[in-house]
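Researcher: Please translate sequence to structure tokens.
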Amino acid sequence: MPQIDASTFASQAFWLVLCFCTLWALLSLFIMPKLANIKEQRKRKINEYLLKAEALKAQAQQAVDTYNEIIGDAQIAAENNLARGEAKLAANLQKTTEAMKKKLSQKMAQQENELAKEKANTEQQMESVVKDLALNIVHKFGFLSINQDDIDKISAKEIKND
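Model: Translation complete:
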């Protein structure tokens, strides 16, 4: 085997050192700086993304805070509108109730007047019927000389005595 032959050790060592140094030089001068540069760019981009993410998180938190503030203001405004609406409704209800009470009292007064007129009319009719009946009864008993005027006079006296 030629690798174990001692006479070739020097040339093998020479080529080993030459290849190692060449590879080391290529790696150190060309490949490692490119890899380090790529690594640095990745680190920079990751940091940029992290900063952007933090900024977006802050914006999102600010948007949430603004949203909550707007919702709170809207709830307060809705409660105020509801309270105003309730007050307006109560005032409207009271005004309508008063108007209806007034109409009802007017209607009741009108009905009472009509009832009083009907009562007076009925009393008048009853008085007329009673007078006619009294005149008929008197005539049936044979007192033909008594007329309607006499019945009216007797009735007027009785009304005065009551």
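Researcher: Any highlights?
Model: DSSP finds two helices and no strands in the chain.
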